[in-house]
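SAMPLE LOG
Freezer: B-3
Tube label: C17
Construct: single chain, 211 aa
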Amino acid sequence: MTFDDIRSETPHDSAPVRSAARVLGQAVLARGGVRHFVDAATPVAVFLVGYQLFGTGPAVAATLTAAALLAGWRLRRGDSPKVVTAALVAVTAYSALVLFTGEGRAFFLPEIVGCAVLTVAFGATLIRGRPLSLLVCQRLRIEPSDVDQPRIRKHRRLTAAWAVMWALHVLVLLPLYAADQITALAVATTLLGKPSVVLAVAASWLWIRKR
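STRUCTURE (predicted):
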């Protein structure tokens, strides 16, 4: 789902925020939002169960098998081959890291590193004076190439909020990784992954839409 899709289905009037949020939620559900969340959670759940019951090797084998079956199912449903391939490559990379280190917690290390990188990326654009949210919105043609100072200030606040969100991800996940809490990591990465990002995108869109 893209911002253009959302905008095309949303009334361009002064409807209350609750109405806009309801329309956005319906658009997400219509495009398989729940299914995508289940797709993302499945490899993590399979890895956790396999690791707890049988150890590293069987867990990796079960996870790769589940990811491959899931990829085939998604392709048959007509999902984008690029998106499906990217997801499969990511799970493969996570699994390879587990085999390389011999540690189950390594499966979640890329998530932590990714959140840290995004924290720095959003924060760095604030320092440079070009908020990342503005650059993204301009790339998606949600914002014009030439925006006034009030809009730039709004995007500075929005970019700061995204930086804080990613930083909170790191603050939650890193201690669990250091303590080798595999189950807690699985639960946290599932809940803090797509659900938090979807909510953040929805809130950002509503904030940007409010002139």
